[in-house]
Fold this protein.
Amino acid sequence: MTEQLGDTLHITLNRPDKRNAIDMPMFSRLAAELAEAEREPLVGAVLLSGAGESFCAGHDLRAFSSWPQQPDGPVPAFLHALAALRKPLVAAVHGHAVGIGATLLLHADWVISTPDAQLLLPFVDMEIAPEAASSLLLAQAIGLVRAKRAMLSGAAFSGQQAYDWGMVTELCDRETLLATAREKAEYLATKSGSAYARIKWLLMSPYDVHRRIDEEVDAINFAVLKQRGVS
């Protein structure tokens, strides 16, 4: 669900009965919305939030039937659109942020979370590779030791821990989360678009990020086929 609020395009993950787990139609819509936001001059910033009790429970497990993914498939298209966004991206996190619901935060410019949010990177237990270039970006954000702890243990960590580690920018209570995130998005939208895009490009090399996204998708394809007994 999308809504234009001033200069901000507010994208709400709106599947609350599934804790906003992302299925293939949602991946396709999100890819299109992010690409359009990048092109649209009336959009100065993007805000991403989740409806109901959680931000995002990750990749819908039933949608793994659509793997392996081709380079132009819904998941790679979304991941590359996310990495290509040069406008401000603000994320408002509460409840659960699992898998892609957590790794996509590494592409946000301002992550606002409730202290009790639960983040989880379950890739080792699912026997697949991580995604969203998180195998590159997580260690850059929180350090190699903490990245290993989060990815190799598969243990949940809180919004407070994510803030202490440097993955979350700001903490906020649930009651004011969305208003605070909207205010921040509107503030960032006032910045020079060209300067903002240039700084984002310099901070996070798009070449490395896009290449890592493709490498991770290839690794997930391999893992899925292996689980099915296909060599």
The two ends are 39 Å apart (CA to CA). Residues 9 and 46 are 5 Å apart (CA to CA). The chain has a mean pLDDT of 96.
